[in-house]
Amino acid sequence: MNSAVSEPVLIGIDWGTSSLRAFLIGAGGEVLDSVSSPEGIMHVPDGDFEAVFANLVGQWMTKARLPVLASGMITSRNGWVETPYETVPLGADDLARALVPHRTACGVELSFITGVTTEHESGPDVMRGEETQIIGASALGMSDGVFVMPGTHSKWIRVVDGRIEDYATYMTGEIFSALRGHTILGALIEDGPFSAEGFKQGVTAGLKERSSLLHDLFHVRTLPLMGKIAPTMVADYLSGLLIGAEISAGADRGNKDGRVTIIGRNDLADRYETALGIAGVDSRRAPDDIVAMGHFLIARSAGLLL
User: Fold this and answer.
1) CA 216 to chain CA centroid, nearest Å
2) Are strands 123-127 and 154-160 parallel, antiparallel or unpaired?
3) Closest to 24 (Cα-Cα) out of 69, 54, 55, 73
4) CA-atom Rg of the chain in angstroms
5) Residue 6's pLDDT band (boundaries 50, 70, 90)?
6) Taking a C-beta distance cutoff of 8 angstroms, is the pair 92, 73 a contact?
7) What average pLDDT does the segment 254-260 reach?
8) Distance between CA atoms of residues 281 and 274, nearest Å
9) Is the CA virtual torsion 154, 36, 266, 45 positive or negative?
10) Collapsing DSSP states into helix, strand and coil, what is residue 162?
11) Residue-wise over 118-149: b if at least 16 C-beta within 10 A, else e?
12) Sheet with 123-127, side-by-side order of all strands
């Protein structure tokens, strides 16, 4: 921590399904220190979230009694405290008013950022954690446009004046895993280095106008069967096909300026950047620690900062 830059005013925790990150946040919203752990909500022994919390941020709590905000799947039915969903449209002020306070057995006060829901003709949609990242983006000149958050369940979010107007979830990552590991499509897949050509071919197929994904998926089997692509290209072709189909549906969701902001910090985000380029869509990347700025803005709106 560099105290010459700023004194800490907040602890923010982004607690997901498979991992978590905690941030010591300064008076300007900057990250002074951070720690991470593989102890996502599905990997906490006996559901002892309080013990994980104490081990993770105890060093920061001993120096000052800082306010704590937590976001993500930690507020789900399988998490520490289940919170209700707020309905779009909403911004930092709305999430601040909806904070759910909690007091640990050790007397530490923390607040949970609730999830967000929207209703579409086909049914409801929900998210937990992504809303905090979107709020953080608004402080970095990214207060309007379409955002994509690649993952097991990718989110496409439309933002207007720093407020989440609407969003949709795509099960792309989970479908990829299921198809590769539990269907005949995986039979001809051979492991190998990333195949840019296989991925590009898949993306192009997924983007085709009037394409039929359920039909096109069978080509993941027939292309290597007929020697059209090498077995080491198949996995990346499948990945590209699914991501291309997702972009075809998601990239135009109220996208007025034609640009998509990618929020992600791994090679999956790199794939989306490549795929968007193939689709002719301009894209940019948000910083890795954007969620910490979201914690800061929501805490400030709630009047929690010292």
Assistant:
1) 27
2) unpaired
3) 69
4) 21
5) confident
6) no
7) 71
8) 10
9) negative
10) coil
11) beeeeeebebbbbbbbbbbbbbeebbbbbbbb
12) 85-87, 115-120, 123-127
Decide: residue 263, CB within 10 A, 0-12 exposed, 13-18 middle, 19+ buried.
buried
Q: Which residue, chain included where needed, has tokens 């999830």?
A: 115
What whole-number distance in Å separates Cα of residue 86 and Cα of residue 117? 6
Q: What does the block give as tokens for 128?
A: 């937990």
> What average pLDDT does range 148-162 have in this prediction?
93
Torsion of CA 87, 91, 97, 103, to 10 degrees: 90
Please give the Cα distance from 29 to 69 (Å, whole number): 13
User: What six digits make up the tokens of 99?
Assistant: 């904070």
Flag whether pLDDT at 49 surpasses 50: yes
Render pLDDT for 291-302 as a digit per residue (tens, 0 to 9): 999 999 999 999
The DSSP bridge partners found for residue 120 are 123
Tokens representing 68?
Answer: 């704590």
Write out the two tokens for 19.
């991992």
The model's pTM: 0.91
Contacts of 222 (CB under 8 A, 6+ apart): 228
Distance CA 162, CA 138 (A): 5
**E-state strands within the chain:** 8-15, 20-26, 31-37, 68-71, 85-87, 100-103, 109-112, 115-120, 123-127, 145-149, 154-160, 163-170, 259-262, 282-285
Note whether 185 and 217 are within 8 A (CB): yes
